[in-house]
Amino acid sequence: MLPLTVRDLVLRFGETTVLDGLALDLGAIGCTMVMGPNGSGKSLLLKLLHGLIEPSAGRIDWGGHAPREVTRRQALVFQKPVLLRRSVAANLDFVLKARGKDAGRRAALLDHVGLAHKAAQPARLLSGGEAQRLALARALATDPEVLFLDEPTASLDPASVLAIERIVSDARARGVRIVFVTHDMGQARRMADDVVFLHRGRVAEHSPAPDFFPRPRCAAARDYLGGKIVV
Amino acid sequence: MHDIGDALGLAVALVLSGDADLLEIVLLSLRVSLSATVIACLVGLPIGALVAIGRFRGRDVVLIVMNALMGLPPVVVGLLVYLHLSRSGPLGFLGLLYTPTAMIVAQTILIAPIVAALSRQVLEDLHTEYAEQFRSLCLTRLQTIRALLWDARYSLLTVGLAGFGRAVAEVGAVIIVGGNIDHLTRVMTTAIALETSKGDLALALALGIVLLVIALGVNAAVQSVRITAARHAYV
């Protein structure tokens, strides 16, 4: 499925152009952090790559496959986790069964995300951090080759953030390709192998993390990292 | 007021005495209306789910028709079923006219559109919430429908209740296709109509009170289930 090649990607909603001729290349391994100001198209880029929406123009090539052909081999964790109106365990059972996975993995997955003791609890009564960990467990239950994360730690406390980062790092260590949208500079520095900086619907910069943070090449990224308002 | 007082007294006396005739009428009413509700749910829920998640040409027309059918006049349904089941009708050979089965058929036709239209709205709202997650999980249409029906189960209970309420209170269709035959097709609503026409208002009111108590009891049971479910954030 990897590498990923994106060329001339355009996404329009009516008269509004959200992504405008975006180009991107991602290698087979690592954790790519996608950053940029609000409205730069980060979440929509993830949905396009995952095949949830169709571009207005351009090409997304997952090693010779269109996005819809590889959606099943990927998983996406949304900023606001969508949990079924069932118990924590039943949320996992649903995915394992729907995807034909071994139902016996439920206990190990819950243990991995620290929710084994909440298995019988209604999922929608979990705290924000717990809900996001369940969403992560559900995503990992599908054995994705690529894991997209759309600001999964937004509005979470530091302990929850670190718990999620640990789970994501474990997945990365097992060879899952991570594409992670965040506004959190500290998180980006901790997690990133490379950084894609979006601005005005384009990739303004794509650099290895050790280069991006001390020496961003584009002015918008410099302003963004410097705490200035970037529009 | 005198009649109401008599009726209350008679109702209590009838219920407490375990009056066989009253019990027979109540049980037949419940049998007919519950059967119609179950069949209407088996038919209406999948239709509601398919329309809820489907995007197809003419969907708006389907929605208009579904909503319009909620207001089907019972006497018209009764007449249509009568024409089909009468000896000269296309289904006359089944010999179902003036049987409880005919009453179940008529009530099912009446409430299936209610179940389909109301469940469509419930399931469409839920699908809006789940759609992206389900697409990401690459669920099939059948998996999606089953998940929606299960997760909306408590809201759909209310939909079923609305159907049951319509069925158990309905008189026009069942009196046409059932004939209000004593010990065979007499249900609470047709008995009330008969007793009223005979001038026996006390018995009619007594039956009405039993009908109201049943309706209240079923509503209370469903509401308590929903409250428990809401406490677990399952609604």
From TrEMBL, chain B:
A Pfam family annotated for this UniProt entry: BPD_transp_1
Positions of the ABC transmembrane type-1 domain: 26-222
Keyword Transport: yes
Membrane spanning residue stretches: 32-54, 61-85, 97-118, 156-181, 201-222
Keyword terms: Membrane, Transmembrane, Transmembrane helix, Transport
Membrane topology: Multi-pass membrane protein
Subcellular location: Cell membrane
Domain of life: Bacteria
Classification via InterPro entries: ABC_perm_TupB-like, MetI-like, MetI-like_sf
Gene Ontology biological-process entries: transmembrane transport
GO CC annotations on file: plasma membrane
Family recorded in the similarity comment: Belongs to the binding-protein-dependent transport system permease family.
Name recorded for this polypeptide: ABC transporter permease subunit
Organism: Palleronia sediminis
Classification of source organism: Bacteria, Pseudomonadati, Pseudomonadota, Alphaproteobacteria, Rhodobacterales
